[in-house]
Amino acid sequence: MDRITVEFPRGVWRHSHTLSVRIGDMNHARHLGHDTLISLLQEARAAALVTLGVDERNIGGYPALVAELAVQYHSETRWPDMLEIETAIPVPEGKGLRVFHRVTHRADRRLAATAMLTLLLVDPSRGGKVVPLPECLVSRLASGTSA
Fold first, then answer.
1. What's this protein's family per the entry (predicted)?
2. Per-residue model confidence as pLDDT tens for the chain (147 residues)
3. What CATH number should be reported for the domain holding residue 92?
4. Is residue 1 part of a domain?
């Protein structure tokens, strides 16, 4: 069986966020559930975007939607693990904002998961038409600075 591979990029804008795994995050197999990992990634992504001066619910006046998502699991995560979630965002090429996450166990730096997703900005008043990313966000990512 072919597995997807998510390569965490080097030399691009990065942010780090620490989160703990809660007891309610465990699934029936007694490890972190997929749905909860996606929620943890969203929280880390939201924190990263805020440092860039944007909120994913309103980037340049438009909400961001996840258009694609790929997750590669490397090791199990359980309560009460502390996780470090690194977010990397390359300078966009086109209308999509590609976001990468690397999740590691803080205790031993063991890799738990890597993920890649693409955010698109949409205009709900025009039937969800995809709109360009704001230049201020692209400029911040290109300069490697936060807001």
1. Belongs to the 4-hydroxybenzoyl-CoA thioesterase family.
2. 788 899 999 999 999 999 999 999 999 999 999 999 999 999 999 999 999 999 999 999 999 999 999 999 999 999 999 999 999 999 999 999 999 999 999 999 999 999 999 999 999 999 999 999 999 999 999 998 776
3. 3.10.129.10
4. no
